[in-house]
Design brief:
435 residues, alpha/beta, Aspartate Aminotransferase, domain 2, three-stranded antiparallel β-sheet, 13 helices
Length: 435
């Protein structure tokens, strides 16, 4: 048997294996766990993964190029740089803005960055790690995004950047944020990790700011296991992100390529001798945060499913809302930002004041009956151990952020949920709320 035939046999066996190994299991109420998130895939992801493995091209390769192009085509953007996680994507996007090559617009230690405390740490930690000052603004309930009225008051002469996530897939008020950014000459980074496929005024989130980030962790809209991406339409920023991602090197040749610029041995950099090999010139203090081709192979299959995944998330959001809208005396239910069409990461719920049970009592009841819940990540990040003694500024009061820390949780909307699961969820809520 020749190599080509053997490879095809391996692929055929992979399809057969997937059908046996990952056949859908029957849902048994009270015995089958209802996860808040999970990977949804078919034989195409396994075939791509095996195909990449047979190439044994372990760094970025043909699947990385394919995956990047699919993301760029989906969002309608110029540059997509793959990385090893969404958190790394946030770090790299922020790092790029600290480059000396940006001149007077670079971010410097001591500058201020507008953020929110009700969210995931990876949107805030790069600010701290580079010595800048997070300025925390309260959020709105029930959109759970930054309160743009307070945002306007938070901007100071030291403000240089706005770094915000679209909370749980719900876009923040991009009209106001981008208007303020233009007025005050601020950078904008969109953390689009929970909102890949969401729209604002018909345009995909992640395409408004100077830079945006995506996560492919299994809980997100599509998955490569670990993985992420940075998105931009700015060629200079794309070059800077690539440099920080690839050890800080100035060279932008793709893996396995040489002398793309045509000047590999004829330039002067820093205090190096004339003609020093450009492939080993380092213009930034960088990292190695690239994605493997094996991960990209999975992502290339996953992204083809993204439109249907987004529609299923929206449908599952509506199912949760139909269940919990029966109890208006207890719950504040989520609402989409005006002009937004969220591909919801989850269904977020806040308990009203003065009701006869706590968030923790309800979530314990749900989890004991195998219905997973999650809090809104850090709650109020200023009260997390890692941030208590850090240098930050709070603009106004974090009243809603504290409310979220104490009284908010979310349920899953991922495409793996079934009608039988929703029927069980409805019954469990009814049992708990029957006093």
């Amino acid at each position: 048997m020749d190599i080509k035939s053997l490879r095809q046999e391996i692929i055929s066996k992979t399809i057969e294996y997937r059908q046996l190994k990952f056949a859908q299991k029957e849902f048994v109420p009270g015995k089958t766990r209802i996860n808040y998130a999970g990977r949804v895939f078919d034989e195409k992801e396994l075939v791509n993964a095996v195909d990449a493995s047979l190439d044994f091209w372990l760094t970025e390769g043909r699947f990385s190029e394919e995956f990047s192009e699919k993301i760029a085509d989906f969002l309608g953007v110029e540059h997509v740089l793959l990385t090893n996680s969404g958190s790394s994507a946030n770090l790299l996007a922020f790092a790029a803005l600290t480059s000396e090559k940006l001149g007077g617009r670079r971010l410097n230690a001591g500058d201020e960055v507008i953020a929110v405390a009700a969210g995931f740490p990876a949107t805030v930690t790069p600010i701290v790690q580079y010595g800048l000052i997070p300025v925390f603004v309260d959020v709105d309930i029930p959109t759970y995004n930054i309160d743009v009225r307070q945002l306007k008051q938070a901007i100071s002469p030291r403000t240089k950047c706005i770094f915000l996530a679209h909370t749980l897939g719900n876009p923040f008020d991009l009209d106001t944020v981008m208007e303020l950014a233009e007025k005050h000459n601020l950078w904008v980074i969109e953390d689009n990790c929970d909102a890949f496929g969401s729209r604002y005024r018909g345009k995909y989130t992640g395409t408004f700011g100077h830079l945006s980030t995506v996560s492919f962790y299994p809980a997100h809209h599509i998955t490569t296991g670990e993985g992420g991406a940075i998105v931009t339409n700015d060629s200079q920023l794309a070059r800077l992100v690539r440099a920080f991602r690839d050890w800080g090197r100035d060279c932008y040749c793709a893996g396995g390529e040489n002398n793309t610029c045509g000047k590999r041995f004829s330039q002067i950099f820093g205090k190096l001798p004339l003609g020093y090999d450009h492939k080993y010139v380092y213009s930034e203090i960088g990292y190695n945060l690239k994605m493997t081709d094996w991960q990209a192979a999975i992502g290339s299959a996953q992204i083809d499913k993204l439109p249907s995944f987004c529609e299923q998330r929206k449908a599952n959001f509506r199912k949760h809302k139909a269940i919990l809208s029966k109890y208006p005396q207890y719950f504040i239910l989520p609402e989409a930002t005006e002009n937004a069409d969220p591909a919801w990461f989850s269904f977020i719920v806040t308990l009203k004041d003065g009701i006869p049970f706590s968030r923790d009592e309800l979530t314990a009841y749900l989890n004991n009956r195998l219905i997973e819940t999650r809090n809104l990540f850090a709650g109020n990040i200023t009260k997390q151990p890692a941030f208590v003694n850090r240098n930050f500024r709070i603009a106004g009061q974090l009243t809603n952020t504290d409310k979220i820390m104490n009284d908010t949780f979310f349920l899953g909307t991922y495409p793996g949920l079934t009608d039988e699961m929703f029927e069980y969820i409805e019954n469990v809520f009814s049992e708990f709320l029957t006093f």
